[in-house]
Design a protein that fits this description.
The complex is a heterodimer of chains A (about 230) and B (about 80). Chain A has about 230 residues and is mostly helical. Chain A has helices at about 5-30, 40-60, 60-80, 95-120, 120-125, 135-175, 185-220. The mean pLDDT of chain A is about 85. The chains are: A mainly alpha (about 230), B mainly alpha (about 80).
């Protein structure tokens, strides 16, 4: 059996996130509600408020209590996973099984929220809308959500990684032409930070935001309209 | 010869991304225009524009994945 190298980086990221959350939890417990929040407490408050507003905007008020913690976990996990390349770890999201699991959780969440909001009979009816033979198309559309959500994250991060490695090879080949100091890969030192900023930081933050906001709007779309 | 053909096939695949690029630019242009006309709705327009761009980007990503599959499976 071959253990893929992304497994190790998943473990490292999970342990790091757990330690960070424990630290934040201790800070929050020691925090006096009447005083002014500073430092990491302020950051966490702004973050939680932002996600809470996003969830209430896209879905129902009733589900905000359950969805907000999940969305916060997912957005921070995907962001940490996307920027893992900066710390010379393998990017977990460039492994298709990771993104497939994340998208599968979203798909199950869509069904559960729809079931909770409508109740059993009305939920079963949604599978046969607008009339009975459409059940085939409805089942196919559930799978298309799963595929498009997982492949979007996977393709974006994988293409960034492959482009970076191609650019590194090209720059190394170009700087090899220079005598004496050519082995140092000078062009790589100059150009790579800018590209890392775009492909790892910007693209990583953007993709984690897009994944969560798409999950939320898919969940909100399946809920019945408010009167 | 065969390798050149495989490279050409991958290039043709990636060409599908051209149209996606143009239309995603159009999403941004329309969003900016509408925000200029109606600044109060800026946050709503922004999130809708991001969702629309992300969904239409799926097409380009499928093109890219097909190109990767052609290169790594046929070319290996």
């Amino acid at each position: 059996m071959v253990i893929q190298t992304t497994v190790y980086s998943i473990i490292i990221i999970t342990v790091f996130m757990a330690l960070l959350l424990l630290y934040i939890n201790r800070k929050l417990k020691a925090f006096d509600p009447l005083s002014k929040p500073t430092g990491i407490v302020l950051l966490v408050m702004i973050f939680a408020e932002m996600i809470d507003k996003m969830v209430k905007d896209k879905t129902d008020e009733r589900f905000a209590k359950y969805l907000t913690p999940y969305i916060m976990t997912v957005i921070s996990y995907i962001f940490l996973a996307n920027i893992a390349g900066l710390f010379s770890l393998d990017t977990p999201t460039s492994n298709y099984s990771v993104t497939l699991v994340l998208a599968a959780i979203t798909c199950i969440l869509i069904e559960v929220c729809s079931l909770k909001a409508r109740g059993g009979k009305a939920y079963l009816k949604t599978w046969f809308e607008p009339f009975a033979p459409f059940v085939v198309l409805n089942v196919l559309s559930k799978f298309s959500t799963l595929l498009s959500l997982s492949l979007r994250l996977f393709g974006n991060i994988l293409s960034g990684g492959i482009l970076m490695s191609v650019i590194y090879q090209m720059l190394a080949a170009v700087s090899n032409k220079i005598p004496l100091i050519g082995k140092l890969n000078i062009f790589g030192i100059i150009l790579a930070p800018v590209l890392h900023f775009y492909f790892d930081l910007f693209s990583g933050a953007m993709q984690s935001y897009i994944f969560t906001i798409l999950s939320l709007s898919f969940i909100g779309k399946e809920l019945p309209q408010k009167e | 010869m065969e390798k050149a053909l495989i490279g050409f096939a991958a290039t043709l695949c990636v060409l599908g991304g051209c149209i996606t690029g143009i239309m995603e630019g159009k999403v941004a242009i329309t969003a900016v225009e509408q925000i200029g006309k109606n600044p109060d709705a800026a946050s709503k327009i922004q999130s809708m524009a991001i969702i629309g761009a992300a969904i239409s980007e799926t097409c380009a990503i499928y093109c890219l994945l097909t190109a990767f599959l052609i290169i790594f499976i046929l070319g290996a």
